[in-house]
Amino acid sequence: MYNFDKRIPRENTNNVKYDLRETYFGNKNVLPMWVADMDFETPDFITKAVIERANHLIYGYSFRPEGYYQSMINWVKRRLAWELQKEWLLFTPGIVPAINFSVHTYTHPGDGIIVQTPVYFPFFSAIKNNGRKLIENQLILSDGQYTMDFDDLEKKAKDAKMLFLSNPHNPVGRCWTSEELQQLSEICLKNNVIVISDEIHNDLILPGFRHTPTAILSDEITQNTVTCIAPSKTFNIAGLSTSTVIIQNDTLRKKFESTLEKLHISSGNLFGTVASQAGYTHGDRWLDELLKYVGENFNYLGNVLENEFSSLKLIKAEATYLGWIDFRETGMTDKAIKDSLIHKAELGLSHGPIFGSGGSGFQRINLAVPRSVVEEAVERLKTVFS
Length: 386
Ligand SMILES: Cc1ncc(COP(=O)(O)O)c(C=O)c1O
Fold this sequence. Notes:
alpha/beta; Aspartate Aminotransferase, domain 1; Aspartate Aminotransferase, domain 2; 2 domains; 15 helices; binds pyridoxal-5'-phosphate
């Protein structure tokens, strides 16, 4: 029903992915497959709702209506079988802000915060910019599959107050199983480490896998988990700055709420509310089709790399639209890989080392693009790496 093959020019719309290529890569001609938004049109049921509201022509102070909350509660129930209550839900203007607020709310300068690298790099700045101590619990890569290093986590949890979890994981694409999440959560509970479960990609689960919200695993785990969700990745509305933090533990929620009140930022964005409600109400079919299409992009790229490139491999993805390509067999340094990609292949990927330890030798590629863009990326890669 939806056409994901359509290529839409995005130049000159003040978008980061295309219009900041010169700034980020020093080459405005790279094919941009880096920052995590999609090159697909935001679905029509969202644009219609936004345009309808925009046509009213007065954009004054607004509040989130009951229908907004109900649409989210019903969506999460339908898609994840998780029954939320309205009073658990707090608004933030993004997940990265929410993560930074959690640092201020639950930790003190100097406290240790664990991240499982390679991981979404704004986790590092949330720790370092706020004077907390970064503790890396590197994932294990074995036979092309990433897993958590629980022995290392056991040791490091003793020195930490908080853990940032990427569930599912950006950039390695794991859809963590309930067993893995349980083991992680129990180690955190035992050591009084609060889990901030960043589930922004929770709707982007590839065919054959199922997302487990960390907070549902047991009553104790529920009480120790702060969950972040958003419609921004799901429906390609990151520019509307709208996300939700779910906290069932009354004490933790009141503390978080107090941080939000002090900053006075909860009123949010009128269009973000309208778009979220429309997405959560009408988005099932579009999302199912999108996931099938993105899954086929992964299959296409994985097969081409395996058959036509001697030294590149795509890590098997279970979730997100972000592919993680292993360049280690090229024997090249990270700098040589980066320079070749930008200046010879003219391909704009996310550089592995920015994701922390374990990122060296890898590049992240955004596959939420029309198939012809993936084909073009392959042709560009061939000029250097085949
Ligand atoms: C794991 C993860 N968390 C958070 C974000 C961004 O969150 P926001 O734009 O809501 O601040 C991203 C975007 O790529 C992400 O991958």
